[in-house]
Amino acid sequence: MPDAVWVLNALYEHERGPTEVSYDEYHQARLADGSTQPHIVRDLDLDAVSIATGGGLGRARHPGPGWRRLRWTELARRTGDPIVPDRLMPSYRCFPSAK
Fold first, then answer.
1. Fewest 10 Å CB contacts: which of 24, 68, 89, 99?
2. Residue-wise over 67-85: b if at least 16 C-beta within 10 A, else e?
3. What is the model's pLDDT at position 5?
């Protein structure tokens, strides 16, 4: 859909650059040391049954100090992948080279 406008989800990476630590691992460490509170909905601990992506529930928000916005165009330049490949909708499939 070349004439369409896409609003793409925000991506964030740590200011130190790409690392072997995922946001979920970072979040789990913060839960363990008590520097952040768990996400509880009714009696369900979402942190125990899901993976934290840094976006939170509902509207995406900045994950906190030490993290910066990573633009889809910047990730595409790094990986050599197109921002949105032909015949695909924007999704996690857009950057098969990203680890």
1. 99
2. eeeeebeebbeeeebeebe
3. 60
Beta strands 11-14 and 67-70 are: antiparallel
Tell me the β-bridge partners of 13: 68
Q: What is the mean pLDDT of each run of 10 residues along the chain (99 residues)?
A: 63 76 86 92 90 67 82 86 81 75
The closest alpha carbon to 33, from 25, 41, 21, belongs to: 25
User: Positive or negative, the Cα torsion across 9, 15, 19, 23?
Assistant: negative
> How far is the CA of 6 from the CAs of 3, 13, 69, 77, 94, in angstroms?
10, 21, 17, 19, 13
In Å, how far from its chain's centre is CA 89?
17
CB 38, CB 46: distance < 8 Å: yes
Helix, strand or coil, per DSSP, at residue 74: helix
pTM, rounded to two decimals: 0.53
Residue 58's pLDDT is what?
Answer: 62
